Amino acid sequence: MTLTWKNIIEFIVKGNPNPDFRIQKTESEWRNILTPEQFRITRKKGTEAPHSGALCSIHEAGKYNCICCDTPLFDSTIKFESGTGWPSFTNPVKENAIKYEKDSSFGMIRVETLCNTCDAHLGHVFPDGPEPSGLRYCINSEALKLKKEKV
User: Fewest 10 Å CB contacts: which of 65, 77, 111, 137?
Assistant: First the structure.
């Protein structure tokens, strides 16, 4: 299913789809498995500097999984160059892979994206992406790991 901006707004208003399963850990447990930068971004809603992430310019085939819980989130086939300085995607791999929340921090209203399995902060989604979805998932490299396809 290709999600649209209307779907995203409905998820915020009516509730997100249920994940396939949930993973919960204490702050201490997350700190033990993540680097300090991964922890700051995924557990404390941080952002990496634009054009600094290792996955920005990589276009190898594979799945982009959550760095915290290894849940598949995005496929390399829907990654595109947005020019924003963060890896950008047009849709998640499954409708229930991503959780959406209204974010009114920094004096603006945006839609935050989180891993629906473990609540890791990923980045934001915007309605200015390419067709067919019209969506641009702007995701922190530190929140993802690329599982390359085996040839």
Answer: 77
Domain limits for position 94:
5-148
**pLDDT single digits (tens) 38-66:** 999 999 999 999 999 999 888 899 999 99
Total structural domains within the chain: 1
Active-site residue (options: 68, 69, 115, 138)? 138
- Per-residue pLDDT tens over the stretch 2-21: 899 999 999 999 999 999 99
Indicate whether 1 pLDDT > 90: no
Per the annotation, the verdict on 66 as an active-site residue is no
User: pTM here?
Assistant: 0.94
Please choose, from the candidates 21, 11, 83, the residue with its C-alpha nearest in 3D space to the C-alpha of residue 50: 83
CATH number at residue 59: 2.170.150.20
